[in-house]
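Dear colleagues,

For the upcoming journal club I promised to circulate an example of a predicted protein-ligand complex. I picked one with oxalic acid because it came up in last month's discussion. The inputs are reproduced below in full, followed by the predicted structure.
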Amino acid sequence: MTAIHKNRALNNWVEEVARYTNPDRVHLCDGSDAENAELIKQMLADGTLETLNPETHPGCYLHRSHPSDVARTEHLTFICTENQADTGPSNNWMAPDEARTRVWPLFENAMRGRTLYVVPYLMGPESSPYSKVGVEITDSPYVVVNMRVMTRMGEIALKRLGDSEDFVKGLHSLGDLDPERRFICHFPQTKEIWSVGSGYGGNALLSKKCFALRIASTQGRDEGWLAEHMLILGLEDPQGHTTYIAAAFPSACGKTNLAMLIPPGSLPGYKVWTVGDDIAWLRPGPDGRLWAINPENGFFGVAPGTNKETNPNAMATIAKNTIFTNVAITQDRQPWWEGLGKPPEALTNWRGQAYDHASNEPAAHPNSRFTAPASQCPGISPKFNEAQGVPISAIIFGGRRPSLVPLAYQALNWRHGVLMGAMLSSETTAAATGKTGVLRRDPMAMLPFCGYHMGDYLAHWLRVGENLSHPPAIFNVNWFRRGANNEFLWPGYGENIRVLRWIVERTRGQSRATETPIGYVPTTEAIDTRGLNVSNAVIQELLRVDANGWSTELRDVEEYLQRFGDRLPYALEEELNNLQRRLEAAEHRSPSTRISATLV
Ligand code: OXD
Ligand code: MN
């Protein structure tokens, strides 16, 4: 084989893979428009893509995946380290030797009749010293065109790589798409990823969950920074001052909506700038603050529920040059999903069949997605490409909790905030295969994405905080609390700005809160409800701290955290005991009612 590139390490690896996978052709991707157009032409010809209405959705395409390949498959996702203890109980472990005998053979001749694409990509802004290079080898042209949207792909990455050997090697093959022969393996020690048998985004776009979270989290552990499942936004106030916030929510809990929020007219002068919607790389800066970059260059968002009311900026972002996966289409070939109003009469469902209106089935798959360039977002931050990133003043954790967890509250300090993140839990969604709507503990929303032992990860969080002279304040939010009739108590979406505003003001010592055993809870007056149809009684309920309920919750948290054994940092156990003691004291004073305490 002739050398595909002058970089020796790259060339040797591609040759080795090509010898084993046996493709018809090898193509090094340059990321150009012409290359993209050629790939799309090919995929239109073989049915991998379909054109959407060029008048309403110029440059947009539909891809229908195999019906058994529509979400991340966590039970087939492995961390492969020599020592099982290093992966911890929250990850599936496979010994590297076992991976070589069980998974590697699935790549043998897997690319016969196909093209092997070499996809170099850069995670992070071109000018940033914190950006990292990855190369994905794949036999899926759908993966290539998605990678071009989600990362800085092609020449730009090769230029950055130069003759360095320092890049994450990702090998992906669709294989035969049989879930029985599907594996997503990570080798943090050698910075390698093998993914076979799936074309689904989170399993196949190896830049995203595999590199930017699982591998990067281990690099962060070793180098003193954090790779997190977080959106990044800037909230500009009427005085023109912008405060940056990072927020972790489990998959499909509204990170994209929050990152792209447009404030309602009743709060004039506020503006949200989107820096990222899914992943943040966070580093202590020389000024003692935590600085964040978004390693990605596009959005791979959940389509259902997205509309002009819930996320107008997303709707504008995906109006052109977007790849839609597993959505339904209307008769005039516009993409359609649940949340866009009444289903039109003639509709083709995500499987490509006529939609049966009498059925209870959704027309779009609940985890159907859009892949769209970040540059198309009307609210994209002017700091999106900033080399140093943005300074983070607040970190928010949140999940779907129908009861107990208040609309918002603030941790007493970093250590308590780390416990708050460790306690995060949420009802499961369609982003991963399995039952939806079940409560699952998901520390820092990283349970499926942390590449090493969760106990070590929590200890790493504590260490990072200790080295910050100006650590971000830490908060927890819950947009999903329900009332007696199971109705959502909080309107959510654009109105969440009211909670963000309280958070930003707290970071400046400006807004009011009550000190309760679980942390600082906003006073009812501190959340601006002008122009909102939410009664005072509902606000009180949203902010109620039920000491009894929390004591029960903490017993569950304690049991959960115990699974991390002696790797659970002692400081967190202590923090949990302190919290338990504060709750017990409050229960004695005023059982299961709102806890009256000091205003701060
Ligand atoms: C995602 C996920 O795709 O979290 O972002 O599943
Ligand atoms: Mn995600």
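Two points we might discuss: The chain has three domains: 8-30+72-223, 228-293+384-593, 299-376. The pocket of oxalic acid (ligand 1) is lined by residues 72, 201-202, 251, 278, 300, 431 (CB under 6 Å).

See you all on Thursday,
B. R.
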